[in-house]
Amino acid sequence: MKRHYINKKYVDPDGGAPNYRNVPGHRVKMKVDLRRGTVVKPTVSWHVEREASEDDRFVEDPQFDVRTTPTTSWGRDVDRHWLTLTIGKVLGARYTVSVKLDGQPAHSFAPFETWYRVFLNVNAGDAYLYGLFSKALSGVKKIFERACIAIEENEVTVAGTKTKEKDHSEQGDRGARITVTLSAADWYPFSHNVVVKIANRAVTEPKYATLTGDTLRLSIAEICRWKASPEHLTSITAKGGAGTLATVGRDDVAGVSARVDNRTLTVDLAAQALAPVQAEIAAGRAVEITLATGVEQFGREGGQGGAGYANIKLWRQAELTLFGKTQTSAQIAALVAHEVGHALGLVDRNASEAYRGTRNVYAFTEGGADERRAPATVSKAHPRKHGPEFGGSGHHCTFNTHRVDDTSTSSKKRVEVMDGMKSCVMFHSTLDRVRDEGFCDTCIAHLRRVAAAR
Ligand SMILES: [Zn+2]
Ligand SMILES: [Zn+2]
User: Fold this and answer.
1) To the nearest 10°, the Cα dihedral for 347, 348, 349, 352?
2) How many A from CA of 443 to the centre of ligand 2?
3) What pLDDT shows up at residue 73?
4) What residue ranges of the chain have pLDDT lower than 50?
5) Is the CB of residue 47 less than 8 Å from the CB of residue 99?
6) Among 7, 93, 179, 202, which has the minimal tally of Cβ within 10 Å of its Cβ?
7) 311 vs 340: CA distance, rounded Å
């Protein structure tokens, strides 16, 4: 008497190698060859189990397709049994599939988990900006791993030249494409140029500028209309009787000027770039210095819903020096994670679509009936979302924040990070006090649902 013998195999019918991290909506196929013995043919039953999680009610039923084909393999008669499983659209769902013959212990396939892949097609204005992004990329990947999203850099274009080609590896086409555009912070001129006239070693106009030694001091409170947005110099040009004495452009202006506080800007006439100006003033001759002022704008606007884009503005070192600010890789990683989060549909203003889900254990026996519970319907809305009426631009996460009075918003309130706390990366500002792990648990859970459902 010969027993029946099985040979099991895990295959990927959508192409590529089976992966521990499988993409939702993708089919995973299990194959079992039952070599016929001489005893009574056993019944083959399949068992699919999904590990229980807080997301249970959101996970859709996987779809099964079970079939049997008699065939021959290695010269023997076998019954070939297939189970095709289409994975539900929630990330981080762990599945174990096993197959059982009557009277034998269950044979398990390697467990797998649902992950989503996000390919970033990076378009950088120049190599400096791309360098900043590159250093921050590992931080971005780490932030998204908690949501079971693998971030991968795909195509890279720097200053119009493609430096990295598309990934054509296996499974290379599965997942979302997000275009990340890196550009330098915008500088918006907010005022007319300030023309400072100097004669006989003293400022003759305007009255809110003074000259003390080599320091030219400008009271910007006199010209600033946007008190909350500190302005700064974007360029300096100086001319004397014989023509242009010096020109200092945006990239170098930080080296010769300083922002003392919200009310004062200074220009150091002893700086090398302004040496001809200093000499002219020292000689008592007339000099006219034009100071161009501006306001910086950065980190604006990621994609929305399925739009699949993230526009990211980064500061150059010269600009940081001017503001006395830092821009660490962790801050850039938070900024990129924030905008990519928007691009994946996180805290989407229109999120009202419902999910349907059921349960986490499924049994299927050929010819038998499976048991199913009625699906539950759950709203997709983000429970911690706040709109621009409480500050910021667009919809954001209120984790660890409270409301304070602010007459500049339409609600007369603004959300602010609580003392001693750190915000979620989806708060409307990622400049400071963002938690190291990035997203709050609500955003992680939300991302696991919205990203896969795109
Ligand atoms: Zn945002
Ligand atoms: Zn959050």
Assistant:
1) -100
2) 4
3) 75
4) 17, 171, 225-229, 298-306, 351-378
5) yes
6) 202
7) 9
Angle at which helix 127-145 crosses helix 329-343, to 10 degrees, equals 70
* 76-103 burial: b if 16+ Cβ within 10 Å, else e: eebbbbbbbbbbbbbbbbebebbbbbee
**388: CB partners within 8 A, 6+ apart:** 394, 395, 409, 410
* pLDDT value at residue 47: 82
pTM of the model: 0.69
Closest ligand by atom to 147 CA? 2
Centre of ligand 2 from the C-alpha of residue 385, in Å: 8
Q: Confirm whether 5-114+359-378 and 116-185+299-347+382-450 share one CATH topology.
A: no
Q: Which amino acid is at 299?
A: G
Answer CATH for 116-185+299-347+382-450 from 1.20.58, 3.40.1350, 3.40.390, 3.90.1520: 3.40.390
Contact 248, 236 (CB under 8 A): yes
Q: What is the CATH number of domain 5-114+359-378?
A: 2.60.40.10
Q: Is 184 left (phi over 0), alpha (psi -120 to 50) or beta?
A: beta
Note whether 298 and 185 are within 8 A (CB): yes
Q: Which-ligand-closest: CA of 437?
A: 2
Sequence ranges of the domains in the chain:
5-114+359-378, 116-185+299-347+382-450, 194-293
| Dist. CA 429–CA 334, nearest whole Å | 10
Give 319 Cα–ligand 2 centroid separation in angstroms: 30
Residues in the chain: 454
Starting from the CA of residue 430, give the closest ligand. Answer: 1
Q: Rounded CA gap, 195 and 218, in Å? A: 11
Residue 302 DSSP class: B
Return the ligand number nearest the Cα of 334: 1
